[in-house]
Design brief:
GO terms for molecular function: hormone activity. Belongs to the stanniocalcin family. One of its GO terms (cellular component) is extracellular space. InterPro entries: Stanniocalcin. By secondary structure, the protein is an all-alpha fold. The protein has 9 helices and no strands. Helix 6 packs parallel to helix 9.
Length: about 150
Amino acid sequence: SIVVYAIFHINFASANDYSICTTYTDLDAAAPCGENGYALNFGYPICRAFIDNEWKFTTDGQAFLNCVRSCLTDFIRTDIITKNVTDCTAINNDAFSSHLPCYTRCNFCDVVLRNILPFALTYQISNFLSVNAIEQVAAVAIQCLSNLSNCLLG
C-alpha cells in the first residue's frame, strides 16, 4: 500500500499546475529584488508548496487555498506590478498587507482548525522569521479569535 501511495502521490504531484505562481516570478522580473525579496523568498515557494500539498486539505480547505491564491496574486498584479512599484521594501510591505484581507475574504478562520495539520506540514519555520510575517500571523489570529468570540457571545 505504501508503493501505491507513493506512485499515486508522484503522479498527482507531477500533474500540479503552478501557472498561478508565475505571478511571483513576473513580480521579480518587473522589480528584481532577488532571492531575499518577497516574490522569490516567500510568495513563489509558498505558492508552490500549497499546490503540492493541496490534496492534504479538506474540500473547504482546498476552496480556501484556491480563493486565497487568486486574491493574493490579483493583488500583486493590480497593486504592485501594474502600479510599477519597484522598491523592494515597499513590495514586501504591500504584499504582506494583502494577507489579512485575503485570508479574511477567503474564510481562513472557518477552515483552519479542520486543516491545522496540512497547514503545519506546508509552512516552514523560516516562513515566519520576518517582522511582516509575524505581524500578519498575529493579525490573522486576532481576527479568528474575534470571530470566535462574536460567535460564542452571539
